[in-house]
Amino acid sequence: MMRSITILSLIALLAGLFALAIGSVTIAPAELWQVVQGEGSTLHRTLVLELRLPRMLAAFATGGLLAVAGALMQVLLRNPLADPYVLGLSGGAAVGALLAMLTGLGALLISGAAFAGAMLAMVLVFGLAHGTGSWTASRLLLTGVVVAAGWGAVITLMLALTPSYKLPGMLYWLMGDVSYARTPWPAVVVLIVASIAVMPLARNLNVLARGPLQAAALGVSVRPLEWTIYLLASLLTATAVTTAGSIGFVGLIVPHMLRLLLGNDQRIILPASALAGGTLLVLADTLARTVIAPEQLPVGVITALLGVPTFLYLLHRSR
After folding, report:
1. Which CATH class is domain 2-318?
2. Distance from C-alpha of 272 to C-alpha of 292, rounded to nearest angstrom
3. Whole-number Å distance between alpha carbons of 275 and 174
4. Domain boundaries, the chain
5. DSSP per residue, 228-275
6. 43-57, 121-135, 163-177, range with greatest mean pLDDT
7. Closest Cα partner for 282 from 14, 5, 3?
8. Listed residue (181, 173, 165) closest to 97, CA to CA
9. For the chain, what is the radius of gyration of the CA atoms?
10. Per residue in 278-306, pLDDT tens?
């Protein structure tokens, strides 16, 4: 366990240093070390400390949040193809953010509206799935898919009625763009706290992954555990979407690939997902801002281009 986490930590560190060094102005390792020591030129300090470092942290936190949320959702729904967006949280966040953009609110209020929309989607899905009795994983999944389709229809209607000069910013938000992240620290704090909070649950998650009846027979309080997983995964997803918009495939591909490489022990998968998801999004964002520099691509486009063939390969391999 410790060996895998150590290797992933080193890879994450190297990816972060690579993201700090690469850009429109390439910074050599010696110059980057001078900036870390508080020295170096004013240009390099500005590039690293004010532009690249906050963006790199936002990308890492967003990727880590999505990957951990995806790992939790796959256990909750007992479906290896589940991802953080399957229950319509991103759709609710998108509607909230687009409404804020339409009314001309500031960036902080747009983030707040996105978070409120995600929380509304969470309450809506949970309430509809629960109904007058208890909910099951399949009922929760079907409810989430239907609610997500409804949010998609609302988003399409809003885009059709939006003035053309507001469309580029809205479309970039929908495709996922880390450059919209104003501050990385809320996402970083949530990722750290959540990564620590889920570790005591890892043993029970291992049992729950084998089915609720077996988990109950082994003494696990199934219903409170499922509620905890759902609420935690929703909070992680809402924070990620609020930080960088809708970025697909990270929460689906990363936990799935880690299970193929490391097994299905949640004590390893959960911290490994945080590190691997963050690393993946840092590298994807670095590629997005350098591949056609000085223009920048939405990072969601890069993750989709990487995620689709990877997912098809994993699906073919598992067959």
Report:
1. mainly alpha
2. 31
3. 25
4. 2-318
5. HHHHHHHHHHHHHHHHH----SHHHHHHHHHHHHH-S-HHHHHHHHHH
6. 43-57
7. 14
8. 173
9. 20
10. 999 999 999 998 888 777 888 888 898 88
